[in-house]
Amino acid sequence: MALNIDQDHARFRDIVRGRVRENLRKYISNGELIARQGQDKVSIPVPQIDVPRFRFGDKSAGGVGQGSGKPGDPIGEGEGEGEGDGHGHGKAGQNEGDHALEVEVSLEELAQILGEELQLPRIENRGKQQIAASKEKYTGIRRTGPESLKHFRRTFREALKRQIASGVYSPERPMIVPTRDDKRFKSWKVATQPVANAVIVYMMDVSGSMGDEQKEIVRIESFWLDTWLRSQYKGIESVYITHDAAAREVDRDTFFRTRESGGTMISSAYKLCAQILDDRFPHQQWNIYPFHFSDGDNWSVDDTTLCMKILRENILPVSNMFCYGQVESPYGSGQFIKDLREQWATDERVVTSEIRDKDSIVDSIKTFLGKGR
Q1: What value does the mean pLDDT of the chain take?
Q2: What is the pTM of this model?
Q3: Does a structural domain hold residue 244?
């Protein structure tokens, strides 16, 4: 029975994965999964999954499968009780309606589906050193230790051996009473193991030309970028920077809710990003992923030149790659992506993407993550 249940559950999960893959682009573009996100799972509404089964029709109705019929007659369900009234309204029926089924999927499984559907390569560690993490590992048994680490099976076995050897044990009255000398405890040692860590630096233009729709696109895309990168590394840190004419580090909630106005100096964000990386995330120990989202407006040509200088000297040398996503806005000029592409046309470390609307998010994710850096 248990084996059948396990087989049915595995089959059901395969069906769910197939449905999620079929609808993944829709899920990504409408941001539905993010609102439902829990700690490590998301609830996904999938169309009703029907299990094949026999259905019995009305015996009084004709037709093949419902009584007498002729070869070539269509197979149908006959007339039902839910007839319309001629004005687009139907009568109440007795049949069940269609319901959406919500299925919980872990973020790890969601990342696997994303990788399969977009054919994302596994990320190659770019030669960065791995951070050593300490972990307690139980390796043996000893005679002393705290009661919380008492090994019950070994203690019982020692007591049984002692009672048999001394002739105290009686099969008719199998009572085992451990003494202090019988007690055995788990022993452990602290093992050091390498852990590949990564930091994602999200930078977003929050000037007046970046409206709620543009920020929503950034919010959706960052969720999926996070989901994939967290499946590739044991430890992930996220840094959030907003900028208009000045840049500031904020928390995640503030990052997506900030409303600003005024001009834009992109170099302010790049300066702060370089400073944070230098102070807190040495590149010998971290895989570094800066992502910048903007509508392409910048204050001046001189500031754009300064941006290129900071990228060349401070950010690119320590990063796995630098990603720039330009979100289309009716108020943005869209010039900055042209400047980046002209400056870094042959450099694979600089990846750019134009995000016209929510339907473009999937293609943007593939552009950013498809190189496996």
Answers
A1: 79
A2: 0.66
A3: yes
